[in-house]
């Protein structure tokens, strides 16, 4: 397999059992996930940038949480409207979006 | 927050909608997740090593999938019995377990 150069993880509050507990989900974690998928597709970055939904990162009050590896950059309170900026500045430009950093 | 030095992601087939589709789940992804949590606790590594369950990585035939960042190391067909070796050699020892690499 070709490993991604960047891997975006988006909390959608999925518990291992399938039950969903809430905060990032309620705060539109799924919309954030879908917007990232759309942007990755439109920019034809599918080979370089992976995206995966996750369970809880333990920072629920600051959700929706987005984590980017290998950078180890953690974003808080991400909305679907923030996704283009993260894609432009960070994923394509290499500089984290400071206003959203945890 | 203190960022983890290593972050272990375990596929438990959790879809963003909460529905679980299957393969890593059926192949004991949840047991793998639980075993990692137990080992991290017993070794008192909770501050350094994070663990998060995920949705599908798109490599279902090779599941359960475990991904370790920032190393960008991808493991296939991981069972609960493999977890101690991954913890010993890779997470604590710094060397990936080659027999499980994708």
From TrEMBL, chains A, B:
Query: Could you state a single Gene Ontology molecular function term?
Result: metal ion binding
List, alphabetically, the InterPro entries matched. Fdxn_Clost-type, Thioredoxin-like_sf
- For whether the record's keyword set contains NAD, the answer is no
UniProt keyword annotations, A-Z:
Iron, Iron-sulfur, Metal-binding
Q: Which CDD domains match?
A: TRX_Fd_family
Q: Which domain of life is it from?
A: Bacteria
Q: What is this protein called?
A: 2Fe-2S ferredoxin
């Amino acid at each position: 397999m070709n490993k991604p150069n960047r891997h975006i993880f988006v909390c959608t509050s999925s518990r291992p059992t399938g039950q969903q507990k809430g905060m990032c989900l309620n705060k539109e974690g799924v919309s954030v996930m879908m917007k990232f998928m759309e942007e990755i597709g439109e920019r034809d970055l599918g080979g370089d940038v992976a995206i995966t939904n996750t369970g809880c990162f333990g920072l629920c009050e600051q959700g929706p949480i987005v984590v980017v590896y290998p950078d180890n950059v953690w974003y808080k309170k991400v909305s679907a409207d923030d996704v283009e900026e993260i894609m432009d500045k960070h994923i394509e430009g290499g500089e984290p979006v400071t206003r959203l950093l945890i």
